[in-house]
């Protein structure tokens, strides 16, 4: 594995264009990142929700920037694959704040970021296109200043937030995607979408790698590859499953006094070994 920051960044870009779907099981701490690498992922992506929960904060711009960046630095130091960080809306209200976040994330060693356009106001659940493009432009400029080809995965929540009717939503997604690419984004991330026909149409209309979140109701990776998707990610689903197991195991322990919930796990030795023990 290459070790220089520029080489890792270049590799991460290539992983979106090599004809294979970049499949990411999002991590929320060092251990989950190491487990995913041992299982074979080609890159590590953090989940902002999982990171926030693991650090005792709610998701949705509630986590302090410094704590999020510290987690990214710890993950980068622990794995030998490219790391991309979910930075929510950018940890700040202004484009300058976003630029500061980008500089911090790059100092931590990450080679990619997700930046979302969710921002609840009286006018709707998303930032305006002009507001979001200003933030993306600031992010790109900050990366260019330090000479790292940062992969900016511009997330639009048109589907996740059910913005408009079906026709309006598709049109808005495409328009936002083009604007975000013109502002310096490397790829487009559309969570909350599982309909294969719509995904195929978006992949046709967006001239950049398309990232989709996946889960039990989603098309298979093979189907998404055929549809033109470049990247799929599980988002907070693995963290949610882990916390779901904690709830099931606790209830079983307290209610029936049994322990079947935890019979199919990684061993102490496996986990300890991944972390240098």
Automatic annotation (TrEMBL):
InterPro entries (UniProt xref): ICL/PEPM, Pyrv/PenolPyrv_kinase-like_dom, Pyrv_kinase-like_dom_sf
Molecular function, one GO term: lyase activity
Gene3D superfamilies to which the protein is assigned, alphabetical: 6.10.250.2750, Phosphoenolpyruvate-binding domains
Record keywords: Lyase
PANTHER family (alphabetical): CARBOXYPHOSPHONOENOLPYRUVATE PHOSPHONOMUTASE-LIKE PROTEIN (AFU_ORTHOLOGUE AFUA_5G07230), PHOSPHOENOLPYRUVATE CARBOXYLASE
Name of the protein described by the UniProt record: 2-Methylisocitrate lyase, PEP mutase family
Organism of derivation: Actinokineospora iranica
């Amino acid at each position: 594995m290459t070790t220089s920051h520029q080489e890792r960044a270049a590799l991460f870009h290539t992983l979106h264009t090599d004809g294979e779907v970049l499949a990411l099981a999002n991590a929320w701490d060092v251990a989950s990142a190491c487990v995913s690498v041992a299982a074979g992922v080609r890159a590590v992506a953090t989940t902002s929700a999982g990171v926030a929960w693991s650090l005792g904060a709610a998701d949705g711009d509630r986590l302090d920037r410094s704590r999020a960046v510290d987690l990214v630095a710890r993950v980068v130091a622990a794995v030998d694959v490219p790391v991309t960080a979910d930075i929510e809306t950018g940890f700040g209200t202004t484009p300058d704040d976003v630029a500061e976040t980008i500089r911090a994330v790059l100092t931590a060693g990450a080679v990619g970021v997700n930046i979302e356009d969710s921002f609840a106001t009286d006018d709707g659940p998303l930032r305006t296109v002009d507001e979001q493009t200003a933030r993306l432009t600031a992010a790109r400029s900050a990366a260019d200043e330090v000479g790292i080809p940062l992969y900016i995965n511009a997330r639009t929540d048109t589907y996740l937030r059910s913005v408009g009717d079906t026709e309006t939503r598709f049109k808005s997604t495409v328009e936002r995607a083009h604007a975000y690419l013109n502002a310096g984004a490397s790829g487009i991330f559309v969570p909350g979408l599982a309909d294969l026909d719509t995904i195929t149409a978006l992949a046709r209309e967006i001239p950049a790698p398309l990232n989709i979140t996946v889960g039990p109701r989603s098309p298979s990776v093979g189907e998404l590859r055929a549809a033109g998707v470049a990247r799929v990610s599980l988002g907070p689903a693995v963290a949610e499953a882990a916390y779901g197991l904690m709830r099931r195991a606790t209830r079983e322990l307290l209610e029936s006094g049994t322990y079947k919930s935890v019979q199919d796990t990684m061993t102490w030795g496996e986990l300890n070994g991944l972390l240098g023990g």
